[in-house]
Amino acid sequence: MTFLRGMSTLKLWSDDLRAATRWYSELLGVEPCFSSEATGRGPGSVEFRIGDYQHELGIIDRRFAPQGLNTSRGGVVAYWHVDDVAGALARLLERGAELLDGVTERGPGFVTASVIDPFGNVLGLMFNRHYLDVLGARHGAR
User: What is the DSSP letter of 85?
Assistant: First the structure.
């Protein structure tokens, strides 16, 4: 069994959960599949299911962040595969994200970029040929 089997959930933090929910809903073109407020537990978190594997993107009110977590901008860069890094980067910048790292060729079949969303989280973009290989193998296509 592989120890790290793949990304399952990415959690982001926001001081303004409602604004972050609107921003990500508009960016992703979907509404959250879960809201703690909708379950009667008050505002605290929302979850989206996105991408080929329906990975979970969660946004949590920063007041629930683990103690000692950096409360300023940035942190770990989680890269999401996109087919067009430059186009995805432009879309994020148009929506108010701040450029962190421009489009960079990392080697044949690997291109990255990253931004800081309006809520201080780093969002990475990557064209990754291995991702497409795995996706193709899982769906019987090459």
Answer: H
- Asked if 119 and 15 count as a contact pair (C-beta separation under 8 A), the reply is yes
Structure tokens at 134: 């795995």
Cβ atoms of 45 and 59 closer than 8 Å: yes
CA distance linking residue 129 with residue 62, whole number of Å: 34
CATH number at residue 122: 3.10.180.10
Radius of gyration of the chain (CA): 16
Structure-block tokens of residue 69: 């977590």
Give the predicted TM-score (pTM) of the model: 0.81
H-type alpha helices, 1-142: 17-28, 85-94, 129-138
Domain span including residue 36: 1-63
Say if CB 126 and CB 85 are below 8 A apart. Answer: yes
Per residue in 75-113, pLDDT (tens digit) is 678 899 999 999 999 999 999 999 999 999 988 889 999
